[in-house]
Amino acid sequence: MPSxxxxxxxxxxxxxxxxxxxxxxxxxxAHIVAELAANAALHGRVPGRDFRLTLxxxxxxxxxxxxxxxxxxxxxxxAPAQGDGAAECGRGLLLVTALADRWGVTAGPVPCKTVxxxxxxxx
Length: 123
Known about the structure:
Blueprint: H1 5-21, H2 27-42, E1 52-58, E2 63-70, H3 91-99, E3 102-107, E4 113-120
Antiparallel strand pairs: 1-2, 2-4, 3-4
Helix pairs in contact: 1-2, 2-3
């Protein structure tokens, strides 16, 4: 996806459509995609480089994994402390923390990083 606000919006739209096609709940996942994609477009942007959105469903463990890969491995996301309404950035990660069952960052492939979030799926 292009590392722009329009690309981040497109990522959310595509993810919601794909999850509906898979007949999976998509509201929380779409919010997470929107936040991670917006972060990739804003903080992970390198001119001429796009970001990648990956959605994976592990039916065995009933987990949806959302991954957003960008080209700025040195810019790691940090969620602000709970209740830090004065923080100018990172508030979207509070939403990710609240909606996801797990999230984190994985280095690579060089020169990239991947921010991921997992949602446990019902039954």
